[in-house]
C-alpha cells in the first residue's frame, strides 16, 4: 500500500517515544520497551546507525547487538508500532552522524549530496538494510508503520535530487508504508528538507502551537506529527548537565495533544553511547565533545529509572488514549557499592605501541583518515634535535586533544579550543624523542562540519630566535580503542603512577547494573570484562560510566583503565549514576 502525505498517519493519534537499540545492551531491549509501553506510548521510534553496522566497508553486521529485526519484533511483542529512521545520516549525537568514517578515507566524498561518490555506498547499504525492513512493515503484517527519508536535511543543504533519490530508493526496494521527512518548524528548514509527496513533520521542544501553525500553513489538512519533541537535552564535556522539570515538559506537550497532534518524545529512553560512539558539535567555533551517557534527562533513565517525567507522560498519554496501561517492570537490580585499587601496568607510550596495528612513516604527520582509522588514538613520534638554549615546541591543529611527551615524560597538553603557548624547552643540541598522542574525541554529528579530518593536522614545530622550523620524519601508529577487548599485557609494571594502563579485579555476587567512577583521574578509557564502556573526563559533568548487568560475571570481574593524563584514586562502583559533576563520598553504610 502507499499512502499520500494527507493521510499518512493511519493510527489516529501517535504517542511515540524514541529508543535506540544501539544504545542499549540487547539483553535489556525488552525491559526498556516494556517501560515505554507502561508510559502509555503506542509507538517506538528508532534511528538506524549505518556506521554501527558497517564500520569497515563491505563488512556489514546485523547479529546480536546489531540485530535490528529482533528489536523491532520485541517492540511488536509489547504492543508497540514502530517508526524507523534509516538515514543514511541520523545526527543523534552519534559519531559522524551515523555516516561511516571510511567514506572519508580518500578525502573526496561529498557527504549528503547526490554526487555518485556518496550515492553509490548509500545504495549498497540500502540494498542490505531495506530488505530486512520490508517484511516487518504493516503492509506485510509487521509493526513498522512509517519510514523517514534522511534526517533534518533542511538544516544542512539544498540538494533536492539527493532527497528524491533516497525517496525513490526506499520505494523501489519495497518500502510501501508512509514516508516522512523531519525538520525544524521554520520556512528556512522546511524549504530545503521536504518533498511535496512526502509527509512533513517538525522537531522542537517548545512552542507547539506555533510549530503547528507553520505546518498547517505549508501543508493544510495534513496530520501533524512532532517527530522529535525534545523533552531533555544531551551533555558536552566541560559544560553543564542539562535538566528540564517534568511539569514544564507536560505543560509544553498538553496543547499539542489537546489539538489532536501526534508526538514522538525524544528521547523516551536515551541509553548510553558506549565506547567511542559519542559525537560532537561545533558551537560558535568551539568544538564540544559529547559525553558517554545519553541519559538526556529522559522519562526513562539511562539504567531504566522511572523519573517524574515518566509519570507525567503516563498521565498525559493514558488520558489521550483512555487505555488501561500496563504496570512498568521493577527497576533492575543494582550492584552493592565497593572500591578497588587500580594496579599500574604499562606506561602509556609502551602500551600504545603494543596495541597499535603497525607503524607508518611519513615526512609530515598523517591524518586518521589517511591512516584508515575510524576513531581512537594516534601516536605520532619523531626524533627531534632540540637547539642549544631556549626554544618552544608547538603542536599545531590537533583534533581534538594532544598529550605531548618528551623522552617518554608527559610534558604538555594541547586542546584544539585553547590558544597554545607551546612547551618551553632548554636544549643542548642533542636529539630527543617527541611523542604526541592525539585523541579523536568524537566526530561532529550536525551541520556543515560533519566529515572533518582528525589527527595531528598541522604538524609540530620548534620555534627559536624568531624562526619556526617544522619537524619532519614521523612514525605514526593508529590505536582503534573501540576494537580493543583487552589492554596489552606486558612483562613488568612500568606505569608507576603516570599515564598508562591500570587494572582492578572486583568480586560480584550478582550480575546487576552498576556505575563506575574514577575520582581524581584526568582522562581515561574504561573496559569491563573486555567491553569498552566509554570515556571519563575530569572536566565533567558526567562522573560515572553505566555498566549494565549483562556485562558483569558472577565472581571475578576485570576492569581495565587506559589513562591519558593524571591518575587518581581507587576505582569506585556504586548503584547510582552521577551525571552532574558531583561525586558524593561513599559512606561506610554504602560500603557495607
Q: Gist?
A:
With 592 residues, this protein is of the alpha+beta class. The chain has 11 helices and 31 strands. An 8-stranded parallel β-barrel has the order 1-2-3-4-5-6-7-8, surrounded by 5 helices. It has a 6-stranded antiparallel β-sheet with strand order 13-24-14-20-17-18, covered by helices on one side. It has a 5-stranded antiparallel β-sheet with strand order 12-25-30-27-28.
Anisotropy-based shape: globular
Q: Helical percent range?
A: 10-25%
Alpha-beta classification: alpha+beta
| Number of contiguous helices | 11
Calculate the mean pLDDT score and round it: 95
Strand order of the largest sheet: 1-2-3-4-5-6-7-8
Percentage of β-strand residues: 25-35%
Give a verbal description of the structure.
There is one protein chain. This protein has 592 residues and is α+β, with helices and mostly antiparallel strands. The protein has 11 helices and 31 strands. An 8-stranded parallel β-barrel has the order 1-2-3-4-5-6-7-8, surrounded by 5 helices. A 6-stranded antiparallel beta sheet has the order 13-24-14-20-17-18, with helices on one face. A 5-stranded antiparallel beta sheet has the order 12-25-30-27-28. A hairpin with a 2-residue loop joins strand 17 (401-406) and strand 18. Mean pLDDT is 95; it is low at 586-592.
Amino acid at each position: 500500500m502507499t499512502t499520500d502525505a494527507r493521510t499518512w498517519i493511519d493510527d489516529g493519534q501517535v504517542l511515540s517515544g524514541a529508543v535506540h537499540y544501539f544504545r542499549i545492551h540487547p539483553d535489556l531491549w525488552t525491559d526498556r520497551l516494556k517501560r515505554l509501553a507502561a508510559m502509555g506510548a503506542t509507538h517506538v521510534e528508532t534511528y538506524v546507525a549505518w556506521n554501527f553496522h558497517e564500520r569497515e566497508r563491505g563488512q556489514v553486521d546485523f547479529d546480536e547487538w546489531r540485530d535490528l529485526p529482533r528489536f523491532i519484533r520485541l517492540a511488536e511483542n509489547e504492543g508497540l508500532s514502530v517508526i524507523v529512521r534509516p538515514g543514511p545520516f541520523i545526527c543523534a549525537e552519534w559519531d559522524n552522524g551515523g555516516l561511516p568514517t571510511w567514506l572519508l578515507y580518500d578525502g573526496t566524498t561529498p557527504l549528503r549530496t547526490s554526487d555518485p561518490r556518496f550515492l553509490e555506498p548509500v545504495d549498497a547499504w540500502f540494498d542490505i538494510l531495506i530488505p530486512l525492513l520490508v517484511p516487518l512493515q504493516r503492509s506485510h503484517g509487521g509493526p513498522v508503520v512509517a519510514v523517514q527519508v534522511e534526517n533534518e536535511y533542511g538544516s544542512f543543504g539544498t540538494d533536492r535530487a539527493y532527497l528524491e533519490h533516497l525517496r525513490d530508493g526506499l520505494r523501489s526496494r519495497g518500502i510501501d508504508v508512509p514516508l516522512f521527512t523531519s525538520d525544524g518548524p521554520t520556512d528556512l528548514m522546511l524549504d530545503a528538507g521536504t518533498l511535496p509527496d512526502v509527509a512533513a513533520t517538525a522537531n522542537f521542544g517548545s512552542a507547539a502551537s506555533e510549530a503547528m501553525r507553520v505546518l498547517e500553513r505549508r501543508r493544510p489538512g495534513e496530520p501533524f506529527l512532532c517527530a522529535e519533541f525534545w523533552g531533555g537535552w544531551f551533555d558536552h564535556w566541560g559544560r553543564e548537565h542539562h535538566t528540564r522539570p517534568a511539569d514544564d515538559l507536560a505543560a509544553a506537550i498538553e496543547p499539542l495533544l489537546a489539538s489532536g497532534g501526534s508526538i514522538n518524545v525524544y528521547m523516551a529512553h536515551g541509553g548510553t553511547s558506549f565506547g567511542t560512539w559519542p559525537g560532537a558539535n561545533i558551537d560558535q567555533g568551539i568544538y564540544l565533545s559529547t559525553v558517554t551517557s545519553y541519559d538526556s534527562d529522559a522519562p526513562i533513565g539511562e539504567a531504566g529509572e522511572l523519573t517524574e517525567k515518566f509519570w507525567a507522560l503516563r498521565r498525559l498519554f493514558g488520558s489521550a488514549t483512555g487505555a488501561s496501561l500496563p504496570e512498568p517492570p521493577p527497576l533492575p537490580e543494582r550492584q552493592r557499592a565497593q572500591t578497588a585499587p587500580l594496579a599500574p601496568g604499562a606506561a602509556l607510550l609502551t602500551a600504545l605501541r603494543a596495541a597499535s596495528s603497525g607503524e607508518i612513516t611519513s615526512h609530515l604527520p598523517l591524518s586518521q583518515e589517511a591512516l584508515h582509522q575510524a576513531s581512537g588514538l594516534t601516536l605520532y613520534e619523531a626524533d627531534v634535535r632540540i637547539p642549544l638554549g631556549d626554544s618552544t615546541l608547538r603542536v599545531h591543529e590537533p583534533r581534538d586533544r594532544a598529550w605531548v611527551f618528551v623522552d617518554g615524560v608527559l610534558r604538555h597538553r594541547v586542546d584544539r579550543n585553547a590558544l597554545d603557548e607551546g612547551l618551553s624547552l632548554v636544549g643542548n643540541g642533542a636529539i630527543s624523542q617527541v611523542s604526541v598522542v592525539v585523541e579523536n574525541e568524537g566526530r561532529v554529528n550536525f551541520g556543515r562540519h560533519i566529515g572533518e579530518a582528525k589527527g595531528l593536522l598541522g604538524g609540530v614545530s620548534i620555534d627559536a630566535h624568531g624562526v619556526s622550523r617544522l619537524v619532519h620524519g614521523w612514525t605514526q601508529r593508529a590505536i582503534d580503542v573501540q576494537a580493543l577487548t583487552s589492554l596489552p599485557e606486558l612483562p613488568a609494571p612500568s606505569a608507576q603512577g603516570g599515564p598508562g594502563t591500570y587494572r582492578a579485579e572486583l568480586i560480584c555476587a550478582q550480575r546487576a547494573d552498576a556505575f563506575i567512577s574514577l575520582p581524581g583521574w584526568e582522562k581515561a578509557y574504561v573496559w569491563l570484562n573486555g567491553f569498552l564502556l566509554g570515556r571519563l573526563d575530569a572536566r565533567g559533568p558526567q562522573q560515572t560510566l553505566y555498566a549494565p548487568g549483562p556485562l558483569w560475571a558472577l565472581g571475578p570481574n576485570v576492569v581495565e583503565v587506559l589513562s591519558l593524563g593524571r591518575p587518581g584514586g581507587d576505582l569506585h562502583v556504586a548503584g547510582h549514576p552521577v551525571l552532574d559533576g558531583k561525586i558524593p563520598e561513599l559512606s561506610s553504610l554504602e560500603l557495607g
